[in-house]
Amino acid sequence: MAGIVKRQRIAGCVKSQRGAEESAVAKWLLIGGAIAFCLVFLLLPLANVFVQAGAKGSAGYWRAISHPDAWAAMKLTLWIAAISVPLNLLFGLAAAWAIAKFEFRGKALLITLIDLPFSVSPVVAGLMFVVLFGLQGYFGAWLRDHGLQVIFAVPGMVLATVFVTFPFVARELIPAMQATGSDQEHAALALGASGWQTFWHVTLPSARWGLLYGVILCNARAMGEFGAVRVVSGNIAGKTQTMPLRVESLNEEFHGQAAFAVASLLALLALVTLAFKTFLEWRQRREFVLAQQAAAGELSVVSPPSSAGGRPAATKGTRKHA
Amino acid sequence: MAANKSSVLPGFRLTMGYTMLYLSLIVLIPIGALFLRVFQAGMATAAFTPDDFDDFPALWERLVQPHDAASAMVWAQFPPDTRAALAAVAEPQRPQALTGALNQLIAGEALFAPASASNVVLSAKADWYLRHAPRSEWCNRTLLEDAFYAHIKKKTNWVDLWLSIKSPRALAAYRLTFGASLLAALVNAVFGTLVAWVLVRYEFYGRRFLDALVDFPFALPTAVAGLTLASLFAANGWLGRFLARPATDGRMEAITQYLPWFGVVIALVFVGLPFVVRTLQPVLENFEREVEEASAMLGAGRLHTFRRVIFPSLLPSILTGFALAFARAIGEFGSVIFVSSNLPYRSEIAPYLIVVRLESYDYAGAMALAVVLLIFSFGLLVGINVIEQWAGRFVKE
Amino acid sequence: MRIIWSLLLLGMAVGVDAGDIKLLNVSYDPTRELYQDYNAAFAKYWKAKTGDTVKIEQSHGGSGKQTRAVVEGLDADVVTLALAYDIDAIARQAGLLPVRWQERLPYNSAPYTSTIVFLVRHGNPKRIKDWEDLVKPGVAVVPANPKTSGGARWAYLAAWGSALKRSGGDETAAREFVRKLYNQAPILDTGARGATISFVQRGIGDVLIVWENEAHLVLREFGAEKFELVLPSISILAEPPVAVVDQNVRRHGTAAVAKAYLEYLYSAEGQAIAAKNFYRPRQGSAARLAAQFPPLERFTLAELFGDWQRVHRIHFVEGGVFDQLQQPSR
Lengths: 322, 397, 330
What we know:
The structure holds 3 protein chains of 3 kinds. Chain B is mainly alpha-helical. Chain B has 2 domains: about 50-155, no CATH class; about 165-395, Orthogonal Bundle (MetI-like fold). Chain B has helices at about 10-45, 55-65, 70-75, 80-90, 95-105, 115-130, 140-150, 160-165, 170-200, 205-215, 215-220, 220-230, 240-245, 255-260, 260-285, 290-295, 300-330, 335-340, 350-360, 365-395; strands spanning about 245, 250-255. Chain C folds into 2 domains: about 1-110 and about 240-290, D-Maltodextrin-Binding Protein, domain 2; about 115-235 and about 300-325, D-Maltodextrin-Binding Protein, domain 2 (3-Layer(aba) Sandwich).
């Protein structure tokens, strides 16, 4: 089973039979094509953000990101993420436990429903909450009579964000929990552990990578959501303006550089997310290799990893991402 | 996968209950509310229907001396002078009074919510009559019908909803949304496969960096993506300057100007790229090299091997990635509106048209469009799950 | 559930800091700079008069978008929008203020006026002097989308009205002129501000059809050596109205300060601030004004089009004249 070695992403270094490799020219052409494509679609947009942000000197840059409204936008963005990520995390844990560890009818439908917010246009998502909580909507008048404001205030923006980031944690956790099966939990229960203990000490550690991926992606999306939040935000500078909304607003105030300055913070956030994700993948892979080596010491036959082994989150999680 | 049907594990009812509760609160109820709203709008029947005009004297009677609640309501909403003028018209052969009444109707107070598509045609027609028809024709019954139908009918019912769903502008928006999404997903399917292939199969300087960067479009807020792509492809942008062409006066014209859909496709390619790459990567990593080697040993050329051996087994994953990129592109909003020129009929995407309708107070039209998109995305999602199951079976075999 | 609600309430608490009188002014795009200046002036005036500190929050966006937000419950104390139709919508659809709101303040509740002018690139390479020049072949015109932008509505009506005036009231000629004009648009932004950015920063088009104040703002921000303002021979008298949102101020208890906020716009200082931000004030020394705002013939909405309801019904509803003009002929 030499396949495993190759699967550990050193394929290019392994000499393989003649004819099963492209010629060097073709290989470099392919690499060149891929790099060119990534350059145009990934690297240039990224670099452009930072170059534009610094185009007119650092003074303007600092002024833009130290503006009180910019601070307020950052605070609000963090708050919204801080509320919506734990909510979705809790849901993700519950849903993953129910779906991964039990069999019941309508499971496929439930999974599809959990996926639904992925494919709903953010604008439509925002519109739904306007229909529910807007003054002309179902609960708007009641809420107003009771002095509560949902739409065009923080709660509405949180709701829209929660909707849009709804599936992230669940979609990462379900395959991770499914992959480990339930044998360990059964063993723990048989040994007298309580349900909670089993969950905390057995299930959660084995699914921790999926959990972390989900949280990172959920967080990135929660901080960056634009379309849905735009529909439900009153866009009051310093009050209901998140960072992406501030980018739009600054752009419209002729402050191109300031817009890019705030945008550069968001791009930085994206880079941190990527770095963190890459780090997690590296840790996970290393654990996997160590486990393999340990296993190989005892057994001569190594079973190939399950589909959720190598890069589980990359398969399921990064997929329908908003 | 462990085949356990464990009822031994605790917590099913708790977690399942919470899952359902949360799902309902956050997803199902809002979606339901949207559908309910559209349904209500559709059920808001017209106070008067075209059939009412068949018995014109009776309709007249109803209007001037309203007996039923609906007509009374309609009648009450006319301004007093219009009411008086209309009452005068009830006596025949008073063209002046009729003119006055029609003028009131057409140019005066809006009696109801803004007119809908069908109303416009009718009110424009009535308007034309007023301006151009000879005075003797002002008693023309058709004119009256048109004018009344246009203004008495309540704004929304199924016909109007349907009209706003299939209005030419909406159709153009669907065409662009689906066309550009399809094109972008195709580009991603081709280049995403290439990128995934290169990342998995080759070792080269910067591979790890590139691998990490593939997720960038996920992590980057869409507004920022739109902003930077717009400035990249502007006439003086880093890329735009090579694609710009001289306009008639010698000034450079950006590609997003002379190809209005170009910006839309670029934005959608950007946001869709990770889907294809990340779907393909694990499949490629698990791909049995032995099969390729066997094919090579049997004398097949590399290209032949790729076409006959590798490509077919990758196809389900490519399709999944394609469908995911497609689904993502359909709903995309933030990045597109910055890059696109948003010209009606030419570069206006459907989610943007929803916003346009909302902002010109056409709520029913906006919601109708939203429901169309919602139904489509749900269908697409079911489709993707089917492909994935099929792909999963394929891989297992 | 309780957790969710308490978290939501917590979230609400974050957005609101405690303090003095708060006023929310929901306005449209090009007034950002005007109201930044005006808010400071008014706060000072109010402090001197009553001793209270008033903090004015601003929300800006396309006029249509802002109207929708107020109709759906954005808690505006005052609205200062691009056209009366939008405030009408708040009155009619949400009932937040009386239908006859426009009679409550002088000059149709429009403390300042503006008009629609052209902004061209330096040296006026396409030699654009008046409306007819816009439809010459090869001229790329940058308007905004009149369905979503208030300024763009005024621009659309200015174009239509100028053609009506030229042809002596021929609607067909006006329609043809406007059709040509919008078919020469390479881009149609949602808001007036978006159109300006396309023209100024992204270098799109030869001529921007724009609010007069916005054109001046561009000249100030980007330099008069890059762009030129062209006054057509005739244009529309644009009256951006202001109004107190009765229902909301009643709930907030801000009726008095909201009313004073709008009335102060008519004061000498308010008018001076408007003029400084390139809005044509209603009062002031004629000579000084003439220097800043060259006189031009301006027709009113009522004169050529009747009222906004009618204009909307004929031109801007889905399937209306504007949609018909945009539709590619086949």
